[in-house]
Amino acid sequence: MHETIANKAYEQIKFDIITCVYVPGQQIAQPQLVEKYEFGITPTREALHKLAQDGFLQPIPRFGYVVSPISIPDVNQIYELRSILEPAAARIAAQVASQEYLEQLLKDADFSYIPGDRQSTIDFVKNNARFHLSFAIATGNRRLVDAISKTLDEMARIFFLGLNLREMSQEVRDEHQAIATAIYNRDPEKAEQTSREEIAHSKDRIMDVLRYRWERDFTMSQISW
């Protein structure tokens, strides 16, 4: 029972970090979270410890935690890993996926979001992760599924932050449909190439909006000073 509550606490706080209820660099303390979520002291403490282990939080002695900042090296490393894993998964999926899966993939690629609408953005990030993970699932390679799932988990917070700063719904939708079409046509080379291009474009968009955020925050700090 206790373990279940701790897991719930972990998932809820993690969700709020990913969806930027707690923004990168924000300080949070255990007593505040215990009061807010009402999971209890021990489950909340265990959840925070696990979130720190997973890289979502950084402990601060005698205070609590800070939400892990998003740095350019972080973004580069995540996208570098994605560019290795996902194109390979798309290529294999084009070769081995069932016809039923291919037809479902075309449907799953058709999603967008309403800029400025928080729930719509949350749903979009979830759909995006599910769409990209589907390539790995279609390969039947459990280790590939685990690797891509972990990468997408780290990516979700970065992606959510980017969506809040720039409207990119149609761009992403078009790219997803291009990948799905290549896989549906059982064209491994095209599927791999399209996936790699989509990841490169995604990185460019995210880096643009994050640079804007960092520059804006720096400017505001100078004004405040």
Describe this structure in words.
By secondary structure, the chain is mainly alpha-helical. Helix content is 76%, strand content 4%. The chain has 9 helices and 3 strands. Helix 4 runs antiparallel to helix 9 (188-224). The protein is globular. Residues 218-225 have low confidence and may be disordered.
Task: Outline the fold blueprint.
Elements: H1 2-18, E1 27-28, H2 30-37, H3 41-53, E2 57-60, E3 64-67, H4 72-96, H5 99-108, H6 118-139, H7 142-165, H8 169-184, H9 188-224
Antiparallel strand pairs: 1-3, 2-3
In short, what is this structure?
The chain has helices spanning 2-18, 30-37, 41-53, 72-96, 99-108, 118-139, 142-165, 169-184, 188-224, and strands spanning 27-28, 57-60, 64-67. The protein has 225 residues and is mainly alpha-helical.
Number of strands: 3
Helix content: over 70%
Number of domains: 2
Largest sheet: 3 strands, antiparallel
List unreliable stretches of 5+ residues: 218-225
Shape: globular
Number of helices: 9
What integer is the average pLDDT? 88
Can you identify the CATH superfamily of the largest domain? GntR ligand-binding domain-like
CATH architecture of the largest domain: Up-down Bundle
Radius of gyration: 19 Å
Per the CATH scheme, the topology name of the largest domain is Four Helix Bundle (Hemerythrin (Met), subunit A)
First-last Cα distance: 49 Å
Structural class: mainly alpha
Enumerate the strands of the largest sheet in spatial order, edge to edge or round the barrel.
1-3-2
Elements, N to C (H/E): HEHHEEHHHHHH
Estimated share of beta-strand residues: under 5%
The CATH C-level class name of the largest domain: Mainly Alpha
